[in-house]
Design a protein that fits this description.
With 117 residues, the chain is mainly α. The protein contains 4 helices and 2 strands. It has a two-stranded antiparallel ribbon with strand order 1-2. Helix 1 packs across helix 2 (39-58).
């Protein structure tokens, strides 16, 4: 995807999450300062990213939401030619997996859940 395609996809996602018209969102807009996003809006955006990951999985694509690379955001911004006006909140690499890893088992619910009464 090129910058324009990424921008259009993210603009649509943000417009839906913030109940804005797409033309209200410009590349230089900041989520909180310019668009009025609050913490609940960020949760909505996270759910939209989750949906994107589910669609990628359904298309048999490997994808993962990542925030760890943000420690090197200046270098990544340079490598990927990310415009300075764009805030980087997370990375979502998407592609075809080189291998099909075996499914991992789930722990029993009682082992990972604690009910408080």
């Amino acid at each position: 995807m090129n910058h324009e395609e990424i921008y259009k996809a993210m603009r649509s996602l943000v417009a839906d999450s913030l109940a804005l018209k797409e033309d209200e969102i410009q590349p230089q807009c900041r989520l909180t300062d310019d668009l009025g996003a609050d913490s609940l809006d960020f949760i909505d955006i996270i759910f939209a990213i989750e949906n994107l990951l589910l669609v990628a999985h359904e298309m048999r694509l490997g994808a993962s939401g990542m925030t760890g690379p943000l420690v090197a955001s200046d270098r990544i911004r340079e490598i990927l030619d990310i415009p300075p006006s764009w805030d980087i909140a997370a990375f979502i690499p998407v592609g075809f997996a080189a291998e099909e890893p075996p499914a991992t088992g789930r722990k029993p619910a009682g082992q990972v859940t604690r009910w408080i009464e």
